[in-house]
């Protein structure tokens, strides 16, 4: 049954800013092992939808359910602890510590969660090994000892992914992960997202503008338009739907 694999669900999720409804009664369920691309024009409400899910914003109406539990009333930090992975903003990092230390601290925080006696059995060197393995995966091994504040934009984005991997979340949320990255850096992140889908059997939500990226990675596309869910389905099907052609893709396809 498909329902058994659902990790995250929003029901009637809505937020109003003054008179403007930025996210409008969005009901959607996301399953393990499925990468859902979230598309829509600028200002459609994609980032706001993420903020409502991760707890950066409080919903005006509706609920967010993670692994069967209503988390709508919980602060962002508790949602993170329950398995909701959102790329850390750089302000959450320790800029004066090294790349390695930042990753190690997140691995350690994850292990200490709940003060499980057995988690204490994991030695310091095991935590360090895990941090190093993650840095290798995101192609930051050579920069392990660099201070975070000195990293290039592209390397900072890689570190954000490293920190999310260190959290081992059930749900990975990426909001335009390659924005501002160079042509040779972006594939590192995209390959990594594909790998996360395969290896972690995770639920992945990806806000992305580039159609070639969506075609390569997405199992499903949902379209937000004026804050509302305008289409939802298999990529080929959604891309040819009238609403998408008009609202979003028509212009891009014409441009290609
Ligand atoms: N904190 C806020 N206060 C007021 N309006 C906001 C706030 N956050 C987002 N909005 C508005 O909500 C709408 C959706 O924005 P956003 O979610 O950033 O769109 P997208 O990510 O799809 O480009 C926009 O009209 C934006 O101006
Ligand atoms: Mg956005």
Q: How would you characterize the overall build of this protein?
A:
The protein has 256 residues and is an alpha/beta fold. The chain folds into 2 domains: 1-83 and 169-256, Rossmann fold (3-Layer(aba) Sandwich); 96-168, no CATH class. It contains 9 helices and 10 strands. It has helices spanning 46-54, 76-81, 99-112, 124-137, 153-167, 186-199, 211-217, 235-240, 242-255; strands spanning 6-17, 20-31, 35-39, 61-66, 69-70, 84-86, 171-175, 203-207, 220-225, 228-233. The protein has a 6-stranded mixed sheet with strand order 6-7-8-3-9-10, sandwiched between helices. The chain has a 4-stranded antiparallel sheet with strand order 2-1-4-5, with helices on one face. Helix 3 (99-112) crosses helix 4. The longest helix has 15 residues, at 153-167. The chain is globular. Bound molecules: adenosine-5'-diphosphate and magnesium ion (MG). Magnesium ion binds at residues 46-47.
Break the fold down into its secondary structure elements and pairings.
Elements: E1 6-17, E2 20-31, E3 35-39, H1 46-54, E4 61-66, E5 69-70, H2 76-81, E6 84-86, H3 99-112, H4 124-137, H5 153-167, E7 171-175, H6 186-199, E8 203-207, H7 211-217, E9 220-225, E10 228-233, H8 235-240, H9 242-255
Parallel strand pairs: 3-8, 3-9, 6-7, 7-8
Antiparallel strand pairs: 1-2, 1-4, 4-5, 9-10
Helix pairs in contact: 3-4, 3-5, 4-5
Magnesium ion binds next to helix 1.
């Amino acid at each position: 049954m498909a329902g058994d694999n659902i990790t995250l669900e929003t029901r009637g999720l809505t937020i109003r800013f003054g008179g403007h409804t930025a996210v409008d009664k969005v009901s959607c369920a996301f399953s393990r092992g499925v990468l859902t691309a979230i598309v829509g024009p600028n200002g459609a409400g994609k980032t706001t939808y993420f903020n409502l899910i991760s707890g950066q914003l409080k919903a005006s109406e509706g609920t967010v359910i993670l692994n069967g539990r209503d988390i709508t009333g919980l602060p962002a930090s508790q949602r993170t602890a329950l398995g909701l992975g959102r790329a850390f903003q750089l302000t959450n990092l320790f800029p004066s510590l090294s790349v390695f230390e930042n990753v190690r601290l997140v691995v350690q925080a994850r292990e200490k969660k709940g003060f499980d006696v057995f988690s204490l059995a994991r030695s310091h060197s095991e935590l360090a090994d895990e941090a190093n393995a993650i840095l290798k995966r995101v192609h930051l091994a050579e920069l392990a000892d660099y201070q975070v504040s000195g990293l290039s934009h592209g390397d900072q984005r890689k570190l954000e992914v490293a920190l999310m991997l260190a959290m081992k979340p059930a749900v990975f949320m990426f909001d335009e992960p390659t924005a501002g990255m160079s042509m040779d850096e972006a594939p590192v992140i995209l390959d990594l997202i594909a790998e996360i889908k395969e290896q972690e059997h995770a639920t992945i939500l990806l806000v992305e503008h580039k159609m070639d990226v969506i075609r390569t990675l997405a199992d499903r596309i949902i379209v937000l338009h004026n804050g509302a869910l305008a289409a939802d389905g298999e990529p080929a099907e959604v891309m040819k739907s009238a609403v998408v052609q008009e609202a979003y893709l028509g212009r891009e396809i014409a441009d290609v």
